Amino acid sequence: MDSLQLARPRSIGVEHVSLWAAEQFGLPDLLQELGLTGPQRHAALGVLVGRMAAPASELATWTWLRERSGLGELLGCDFETMGLSALYRAGDLLLRHREALEARLFSRAMRLFGQQTRVTLVDLTNTCFEGEAKAQSKAKRGRSKEERSDCPLLTLGVVLDRSGFARRTRFRRNCWRSRAFTAAARGR
Fold first, then answer.
1. What is the mean pLDDT of each run of 10 residues along the chain (188 residues)?
2. Do 174 and 155 form a contact (C-beta atoms < 8 A)?
3. Using CB atoms within 10 A of its CB, is residue 185 exposed (0-12), middle (13-18) or buried (19+)?
């Protein structure tokens, strides 16, 4: 043999570890309990694994899944024939079930790692929208950390426990001093 030619090389290392971790957390079963169909579960796992392995936009994740990843072979699905809109819809489904996913995954992480539930960090940031952002009902004009008052903004918050696990997330306007956000973070 004088040469070697690769045809459709794929990575499977990070994909295999990510799927193993998802199984440990019961994520595939949870997605099924939430009513996601088989193709929706595959797309959702593709979005999640893609964001862990090669963080980028849905378009970049779709390209990664189709051209460089062996995740489809591990899941028994064909990402090469899956349309980009399937990943967008999967992201929407994950967002729709965000609270149930966060609660179950956080609880499972606490059991797996023998951790106590204790809030140690609340981090807030905001993002500005260029233009009117009329389709974003939560985006309102207000005071941003960047002192931008010329465009609508959305405040994003995350609460972490002492081990760095996300306890809760919120997408709100004006949650800088939100008691409801803090209470939700503490599980109340």
1. 82 94 94 96 96 89 95 95 94 91 86 74 68 70 69 75 69 47 50
2. yes
3. buried
